[in-house]
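User: quick one, fold this
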Amino acid sequence: MDLYTRLERTGLIPVIKITNAENALPLAAALRDGGLNAAEITFRTPCAAEAIAKIREAYPDMLIGAGTVLTTTQADDAMKAGADFLVSPGLNPSVVTYCLEKGYPIVPGCATPSDIETALSLGLDHVKFFPAEAAGGLPMIKAMSAPYGNVRFMPTGGISEKNLLQYLSFGKIFACGGSFMVNDALIEAGDFDEIRERTCKAVSLMLGFELKHIGINAPSEEEAKKTASLLDAIFGFGTREIPVSYFVGPFEVMKGKDRGANGHIAIATYDVDRAIYHLTQRGYAIDESSIVRNPAGKATFAYLADEFLGFAIHFTTKPY
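Assistant:
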C-alpha cells in the first residue's frame, strides 16, 4: 500500500506539537489505542526529531509525518529520525525540489491556484490545503479543484468534529489534518486518557458505523415469503421483493440459506475502504473474496471473516 493510500485509509491525521520528548510514547500509545495509528509531529519545537525517533523505534508500523518542515535541514533530520513523509505549511520550490531529489515524500501547503500550478510543475498532485478554514474552507477547495481535476487535498487548520465529515465527503479530499483530539493543553497536562477517548470518538465519527438491516436466513422461498408477510402484518413496514430476498423495514428475509448460519447483519459506513483499513489495524480480519468494488475502484461491500453467534457481518456504504 503506497503512502497516499495509507493516508486516505487513515482519513484523519493528528497534528501534534511536542515540547517534551518524554511525552512522545504515551501520546503515540493513546492515539493507537484510540484507533489512529498515525501522527504528524510538527517541527515547531527542538525535540521534534527526537520524538519521531522514539515513536518509530517503539511502533515501527505507525504512520509518522513530520510537519512544519521549512528547510532542507529539517527535512533531512525528519527522515533520518524515521518519518514516513513530510508536510510543509507552504510551497517552497527549493525545499520541495530538494526533497523530491532525495526521494522524500512531501505534501506541501497550497492555498491558491498559483501554489497548485507550482506543485503540478514539480510533479506533485497531493497537497495540503492550509490554513483550511481561514483560507476559504471547503468552498475554496471545491472551487480550486474544478480546473485541477487530478489534484487531491489534505485540509489542515480549523478542522474539528463539527466540520470533519463535510470535508471528508468531498472526493478530492484524501485526508484531513487535525489537532482537536490532541491539543497542546492535554499533552502538557499528560492527560493521555482524555486524548485516547477523544481520538476514539473522532474515529467513530469518521467511520459512522450504523445498523443498516438484519438478514434472516429462511429454509425456502416459501418460508421467506410467509415470514416477510408476518413481519409486515405486525409492524406495517411494507414489503419489497428482490431476486434473493424480501425487505421488510429493517429486516431482510433471505429466500434460502445465505452467508451466516442464521443470517447476516449489515452495517453502513461512510467509506468501506477506510472501515476495512481501520478494522484490520485493530486485528479484525476481512474476507478479501467478499469485497465488491465500483468502476472507480472504491470498495462498496465487504464481509468480516468471522461470524458472531451465527450471524455474518457485512459493510455497505452510506452517504455523508
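User: anything notable?
Assistant: The longest helix spans residues 192-207.
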